[in-house]
Write a sequence for this structure.
């Protein structure tokens, strides 16, 4: 039997559901999967244009499975957390091989695929296949932590167990997909991280945190360690009108993307000294460091960088991919054909600006 919470929330959702391109009366499991993968750690408004371009380029699971990794990464470029794209690609190929090209309508089978964890499996199973499966993303976690005044850290093992138990206990049979999406929408538009609109919430009469006046203190968060900062350098290495780019190994941070080679500056090194050392270690070549290209700030999940890019030219040796999976000499005008992370893309755009075409040394 549906709980009172489910009845009120579904009534609210029927009137206030967000209109999103992947929400259909008859959901396409592939489209739901793509959207849930993109929405991991990314806001809806950011995802929508990427989702629409992705579906135009890879309209079916079979189209994605048959695509090359570089095409997949290029379609994902700028969305970040690139392991999501690589996992989608790998999983699509496994679905073709293991499940005859059809995404399985089974939670355990879904979780056996790369990149599909407990939340994503529950979301796909409930939204795409109508199964009575709970889901627990950031928005839903926050709603339940407030509704039931969960006093332990939401991300702790105890907190996770309690929240998953609550998600399962309050799931209405037959409308799990709508209910999970309603919780997502409520968390995104009403039960927000800061200054929640409690007076407008359809569940305020049942919310324990609201009754106690502690809604701003839920969910309980664990203290985060300080985020380290690194100074790094990159070489825009010129030869005969082309520049050298390196492709990172497929696994790991920014896996499979192209970059201008370089790395961290060590204690006691100047920027040019650190860059010259990195190029010797990465490419087996000596360089002459010239004028700056620019200075770029970027934040990753667990650290931040300040990157200093320099125009450079070879002094001795022929570059070899000692740490990269591949090297290419490319004209600046053709750099757009190679998928890159945000900082390297900014550098590549700088290189084609008319005012940057002068003497680099």
């Amino acid at each position: 039997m549906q709980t009172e919470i489910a009845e009120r929330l579904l009534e609210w959702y029927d009137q206030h559901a967000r209109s999103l391109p992947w929400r259909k009366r008859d959901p396409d499991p592939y489209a739901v999967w793509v959207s849930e993968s993109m929405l991991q750690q990314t806001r809806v408004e950011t995802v929508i244009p990427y989702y629409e371009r992705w579906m135009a380029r890879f309209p079916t699971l079979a189209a994605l499975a048959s695509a090359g990794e570089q095409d997949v990464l290029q379609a994902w470029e700028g969305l970040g957390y690139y392991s999501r794209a690589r996992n989608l690609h790998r999983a699509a190929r496994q679905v073709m091989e293991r499940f005859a090209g059809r995404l399985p309508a089974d939670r355990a089978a879904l979780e056996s695929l790369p990149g599909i964890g407990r939340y994503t499996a529950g979301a796909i199973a409930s939204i795409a296949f109508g199964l009575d499966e709970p889901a627990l993303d950031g928005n839903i976690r926050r709603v339940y932590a407030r509704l039931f005044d969960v006093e332990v850290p939401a991300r702790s093992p105890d907190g996770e167990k309690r929240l998953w138990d609550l998600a399962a206990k309050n799931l209405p049979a037959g409308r799990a997909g709508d209910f999970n999406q309603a919780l997502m929408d409520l968390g995104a538009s009403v039960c927000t991280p800061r200054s929640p609109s409690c007076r407008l919430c359809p569940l305020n009469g049942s919310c324990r945190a609201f009754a106690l006046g502690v809604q701003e203190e839920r969910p309980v968060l664990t203290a985060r360690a300080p985020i380290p900062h690194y100074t790094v350098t990159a070489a825009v290495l010129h030869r005969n009108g082309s520049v050298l780019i390196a492709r990172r190994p497929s696994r790991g941070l920014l896996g499979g993307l192209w970059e201008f080679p370089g790395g961290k500056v060590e204690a006691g090194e100047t920027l040019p000294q650190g860059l010259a050392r990195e190029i010797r270690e990465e490419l087996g070549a000596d360089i002459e460091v010239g004028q700056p290209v620019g200075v770029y700030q970027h934040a990753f999940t667990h650290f931040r960088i300040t990157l200093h890019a320099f125009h450079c030219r070879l002094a001795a040796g022929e570059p070899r991919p000692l740490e990269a999976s591949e090297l290419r000499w490319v004209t600046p005008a053709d750099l757009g054909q190679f998928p890159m992370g945000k900082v390297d893309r900014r550098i590549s755009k700088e290189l084609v600006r008319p005012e940057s075409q002068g003497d680099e040394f």
Summary: Residues 9 and 100 are 37 Å apart (CA to CA).
